[in-house]
Amino acid sequence: MLDIRSSIATPAAKAQPIRRADYRPPDWLVPELALDFELGAGETRVTGSLSAVRSGAHDRPLRLDRDGIVPDSVRIDGVEADWSQLDDAIEVTLPGDAHSIEIAVTLHPDRNTQLMGLYASGGLLCTQCEAQGFRRILPFPDRPDVLTRYRVRMTADSTRYPVLLANGDPVGSGDAGDGRHWAEWDDPFPKPSYLFALVAGDLVANTGSFTTMSGREVQLGIWVRESDLAKTDHALSALKTAMAWDEKVYGREYDLDVFNIVAVDDFNFGAMENKGLNIFNSRYILADPDTATDYDYDAVAAVVAHEYFHNWSGNRVTCRDWFQLSLKEGFTVFRDQQFSADQGSPAVKRIEDVRGLRAAQFPEDAGPLAHPVRPDEYLEISNFYTATIYNKGAEVIRMMHTMLGEAAFRAGSDLYFDRHDGTAATVEDFACAMEDASGADLTQFRLWYSQAGTPRVSAQLSHAPGDGRARIALRQLVPPTPGQPDKAPMLLPLRIKLFGSETGKPLGEERLVLLGDTSADIAFDGVAETPVLSINRGFSAPVILDTNRTAADLAFLSAHDDDPFARYEAMQQLMLDTLVTAVTHGRADHDAVIAAVARTLASPDLDKAFVGEAVLLPSESFIGDQLSVVDPDAVFRAREALRRDLATRLGEQWRDAYDGAAANRFEYTPAAKGLRRLRNVALGYLAASGAPDAADLAFAQFEGADNMTDRHGALATLVNGTSDKRIAALDIFYNRYRDNPLVLDKWFSVQALSARDDAVDQVEELAKHRDFTLANPNRARALVGMFSVNQRAFHHPSGRGYRFVADQLLALDKLNPQTAAKLVPPLGRWKRFDDDRAAMMRGELERIVASAGLSKDMLEQAGKSLD
Ligand code: ARG
Ligand code: ZN
């Protein structure tokens, strides 16, 4: 093995971390910026005229961040000036306290494969500036605490770029001669550079309007290529619903005359909340029944709402520095989760969110890339757009909501927006507003922002029948994480309720227990019958729970708990316990799981979507997370054995569930979605049972479907199986959707996630397919990203899975470091696997780190993953 220290010495020594403790307010403010763009895909000329105002008494130069651009000229107060050029900035010495600076730059959007700054996507020109893309457009104090009023003028070819959009409201447009035209936009709200945006292209809009609570009319537009126009109704209606919801639930009103959203095909992440001009990955805008699954429909609505909500939580109040990222992201994710819960089934939404947290955030918190919700340092900020900042950040806000209650939380949110409107705030400001509005003391609770690692909670219930007293012995442990060996106990809000094991009835009201010490004893009196413990209901704290509940207790709760989320959790825990026993002992008794699933399937009054979730086995990786050393093959075998047993022993029930949910016409309603969900789950079990007609059923569903949920569900079942219909279905699907990139992504990912023995061979072949390209982030993630979470295939004992991913990441890093670096974490989990696998995984990380010309993004992710 290579010595890592020597191999990373050179580049790592160069890259100095940025530290939160080093924060200093800006030396110079920029109250105004006028931008002039002569747009072209090959060449764009930018002129920025800014006012620079000295802040405080100092004699430091004006520092303008830059990334890969060199000014053509710099003029100070109208006179050509000198500047000094540093690696990542230019510096200008200014004699007075206020000057006007004009900078000219030439850009080449069509060579911008990083998709940061101004770039070309399809025929469009568009921008992405968060976090530090603006410095690829103009040298500028590119930091979120410099708030500037923008005026933007664009000139472009009238045929290629008939539509010109920017932030704020449109203020003028006209002919520019020579087949060119111009448009000017003005944004009255001062904003940080990361919220700047423009779009130029041949676009059409699905338009609408929204009247705000104070009676102002806002013009809405969802801008897409003409051929996609029919797929924008869902996004537009989600936008209107979100605008009304934010008024009702948070009292937040929209503040410009227009709100535009543009969909682009090449995008590094989900979407971006640029003021008045959100730019989206087209996968979170376009939806129609033929091409989008129910999951896609839900995601479109959630992301549209998320970006819209940022208008207040992010834009009106922004972040002082990037260490505060969760201030806007955690809060906004929490807001979009609440919104989605209000549109359908809150329990199913919570189940999905918790499943996502466990799949992405818990492993991050347990691995080499663990970091607090408010990190202390980073090399590359793009690496910190993580599940911890977003999803754990949302859990932290949710806990405040749980502890303070709806009304006090709303008062705190109002106070926060009032106090900090138009400024760049901190996580601490948010906590103070919550405290001041509610009277609560969040001193200890703030540890959630500074300590990384998922707390482990043990809850042991005992009952003395004689005195009618039940006791719960609680303990907590926050595990060490990189750079944080010792942890203080956290404040954990635990919603707890007891149920009588004979009557099945609640024994008293639910209690909210705040565990703040390492251990505590909680007593419940008047407990006449043997109690069963329901704890962390609704996942009130994002912790890993260990209890002394038996399989019988869990089965009981899965049938009797009055909180559907808790019923789901009990079922999951029962399944998990069974599977862990099977992996560690080679066999396990499946009876309790089978009986519980049978009972759930037979409960007529349960929501079908809930049933579909409740009867699903935990994922292979979640099972792996419970083991000290993961054997992916043993996990796969144990899970398959339980699946087969459930499938055969409940054969008739699966058949009934399948037939009972037989699709009618497509409808996007919670009830219809629930039926489709359950039907696809039932189809999976029918296939697992080896039912001779399962492949025919799947193929008939595939061919007869009037919506993508049914078609895709059937395809997934076929792709995981051995029937010769698998190839036929894949071909039909490919030919039907070959011109639709978003659906073709599904064709790649369904194969990347295959449970078949030959998944690695398939994926290696697919990487050579003519439709595979690393230049499009969605496509790269559909194949490489999905494959690396296919636990058994990625961890193929030959190491081929690791090599494949590392090869792809090295190639992708040359084009698009941000997207490449996001795909490193699965390789970084080597400590969790057996020695052979661990050595191969480390070997690939070492190969990555030793590669010439590696990006800072990759260097940080791969380098830290070796520790
Ligand atoms: N702020 C965007 C959102 O709504 C995401 C921006 C991601 N930026 C990045 N560099 N990864 O979540
Ligand atoms: Zn966001």
Automatic annotation (TrEMBL):
Annotated organism of origin: Sphingomonas japonica
Domain Peptidase M1 alanyl aminopeptidase C-terminal per the UniProt entry, residue ranges: 552-866
Residue ranges occupied by any Peptidase M1 alanyl aminopeptidase Ig-like fold domain in the UniProt entry: 453-547
Protein name: Aminopeptidase N
Stretches of the chain forming a coiled coil according to its record: none
Protein family membership: Belongs to the peptidase M1 family.
Pfam families the UniProt entry points to: DUF3458 (PF11940), DUF3458_C (PF17432), Peptidase_M1 (PF01433), Peptidase_M1_N (PF17900)
Limits of the Peptidase M1 membrane alanine aminopeptidase domain: 235-445
Keyword terms of this UniProt record: Aminopeptidase, Hydrolase, Metal-binding, Metalloprotease, Protease, Zinc
Enzyme class: hydrolase
Signal peptide start-end: none
InterPro entries noted in UniProt: Aminopeptidase_N-like_N, Aminopeptidase_N-like_N_sf, PepN_Ig-like_sf, Peptidase_M1, Peptidase_M1_dom, Peptidase_M1_pepN, Peptidase_M1_pepN_C, Peptidase_M1_pepN_C_sf
Cofactor requirement: Zn(2+)
Reactions mediated catalytically: Release of an N-terminal amino acid, Xaa-|-Yaa- from a peptide, amide or arylamide. Xaa is preferably Ala, but may be most amino acids including Pro (slow action). When a terminal hydrophobic residue is followed by a prolyl residue, the two may be released as an intact Xaa-Pro dipeptide
UniProt KW Zinc keyword: yes
Aminopeptidase N-like N-terminal domain location: 74-195
